[in-house]
UniProtKB/TrEMBL annotation:
Protein name: Amino acid permease
InterPro entries in the cross-refs: AA/rel_permease1, Amino_acid_permease_CS
Native species: Streptomyces maoxianensis
Pfam family, one: AA_permease_2
Transmembrane stretches, start-end: 12-35, 47-71, 92-125, 137-155, 167-185, 205-224, 245-267, 287-310, 347-364, 370-390, 410-429, 441-459
Keywords for this protein: Membrane, Transmembrane, Transmembrane helix, Transport
Record-linked PROSITE patterns: AMINO_ACID_PERMEASE_1
Locations listed in the record: Membrane
Membrane topology, from the record: Multi-pass membrane protein
């Protein structure tokens, strides 16, 4: 790909799958956004929306996998955008990289914030006198980010080991939760309950509310570009990277549907559950009792912490690669690699600091979580969409060993269509009436990043950044290999 090697190839096929599966993280995604889905569409959207969005995401993953097979680098999306563009390669690469960056930051922030929320729910269950506050949620999130940054500063073997553990934590944890919710409760909803529709968003239009409810599934299915970002550290990356993406999406789709059905049918009092501080926790308490609920809540919190760690790992590699090509402020800092651990340590701490800035509005905003989720979904999916769109326009695309053959353009077309629809949807207001505390500030956060990127591009970057840097021919790069 034109780069001297700085990162070691120690990720096996399972490790590559594990990082995307961990970031998608069905337990974290479903438990953190389930309450929003109960108000925006209810069971009908939670279940059928999951199925529909899962299918669309498989199209996106397949289109991305084909590109990943052709360009297996840490730069991933922005690198491939620069290579696939017919003209203005630097600009396409620049904006893709910044969209990917803000989406990754949003994912790390949202996962940490969700973990902090559930940690407080557990503390309140254990010690009823504990007062849950938005300020404490922000502070706990900051501690979580600190711990995850420390874990990421050590060797890539440690990260790979943790991700392997997280896969089994997720699968076994999901089975335990589903079995408990199926066997223990003495009351379940009737089969027809899956068609029950609810609109408590404040908007009178039911279709609009139902579309908002798709956020639950879309938020869960983000971050599978993690496999792409880890390709420089994956053996046989041209095959194992796209397989990692597709396996992570497919396994998450099937397992997530089972978990979603178990939660929906275990709801006892819909109105009371929906209005509780953490609806999934209330479902566990109503069906299983406080003691069992606390034990299962530990599984959920563990899944969220694993998810945040993998998110930060992926974000770090994107920062490392983008800085390697001189596309970020202080690039010389962020692409340096520790000689002891062979990891981009400085990029790790930037990947921890930026999410902390993003969650600061949660100190006073009641809708901060859904706004952060929207930043995550929109930023990432637009970054996914750019190289897929460019591949769609390219008639002489040279695929890698893993490819879609004659169906490549059809799959890419479906993927781009879904990305456009979902991106527009999640920039819109999510709660009515719209006030300073319910306002969806995702467009502002995304707009600020794009404005800075645009000003910087026209001021200086367009004259020095022409897209991914090539250090020379394969033989020349091999001669300067750093490992």
């Amino acid at each position: 790909m034109g780069y001297p090697r700085k990162l070691t190839r120690r990720f096996r096929a399972f490790d590559n799958f594990a990082i995307s599966f961990t970031i998608i993280n069905i337990i974290s995604g479903i438990f953190s956004a389930f309450g929003f889905g109960m108000e925006a569409g209810g069971p009908r959207i939670l279940i059928f929306g999951w199925i529909g969005v899962s299918v669309m995401v498989l199209f996106v993953g397949a289109a991305m996998g084909e590109i990943a097979s052709a360009y297996p680098t840490s730069g991933a999306l922005y690198f491939s955008a620069g290579k696939l563009a017919k003209r203005h390669r630097g600009a396409w690469s620049w904006y893709t990289g910044w969209l990917n960056f803000v989406g990754q930051v949003g994912g790390t922030a949202a996962t940490g914030y969700a973990a902090a929320t559930f940690i407080q729910a557990f503390i309140a269950m254990q010690w009823p006198s504990y007062e849950v506050t938005a300020q404490r949620t922000v502070l706990i999130t900051a501690v979580i980010l600190l711990i995850q940054a420390l874990a990421n500063t050590y060797t890539v073997q440690l990260v790979a080991l943790v991700n392997r553990i997280s896969v089994w934590w997720l699968l076994i944890g999901m089975v335990v939760i589903v079995v408990a919710l199926t066997v223990v409760p003495d009351h379940h909803q009737p089969a027809s309950f899956m068609t029950h529709f609810v609109n408590n968003t404040g908007f009178s239009n039911g279709i609009y509310a139902a579309m908002l409810g798709l956020l639950v599934t879309s938020w869960t299915f983000t971050g599978f570009d993690g496999s792409f970002h880890m390709s420089e550290e994956t053996v046989k990356a041209t095959v194992n990277t796209p397989k990692g993406i597709m396996r992570a999406i497919a396994c998450s789709a099937g397992a997530g549907l089972i978990l979603m059905l178990a939660l929906v049918y275990a709801i006892r009092d819909y109105a009371a559950t929906a209005s509780s501080a953490a609806p999934p926790v209330q479902i566990l308490i109503d069906g299983l009792g406080v003691g069992t609920a606390k034990l299962l809540l530990l599984i959920v919190i563990g899944a969220m912490l694993f998810c945040g760690l993998a998110n930060m790992t992926s974000n770090t590699r994107q920062i490392f690669a983008f800085s390697r090509d001189g596309a970020m402020p202080g690039s010389r800092w962020w692409h340096s690699v520790s000689l002891r651990t062979r990891t981009p340590v400085k990029a790790v701490w930037l990947a921890a600091a930026c999410p902390l800035v993003l969650i600061i509005p949660a100190w006073w905003s009641h809708t901060a979580f859904t706004a952060i989720v929207s930043v995550n979904v929109v930023g990432l999916y637009l970054a996914y969409g750019v190289p897929i769109f460019l591949r769609l326009r390219l008639n002489d695309f040279e695929p890698g060993p893993w490819n879609l053959g004659r169906y490549g353009k059809l799959v890419a077309g479906v993927a781009v269509t879904w990305i456009v629809i979902s991106s527009v949807l999640f920039m819109l207001p999510q709660v009515s009436p719209i006030t300073s505390t319910t306002f969806n500030y995702a467009p502002i956060a995304l707009g600020v990043v794009l404005l800075i990127a645009t000003v910087w591009w026209f001021a200086t970057a367009r004259r020095r950044f022409q897209g991914p840097v090539s250090y020379g021919s394969p033989d020349e790069v091999a001669a300067m290999d750093l490992i």
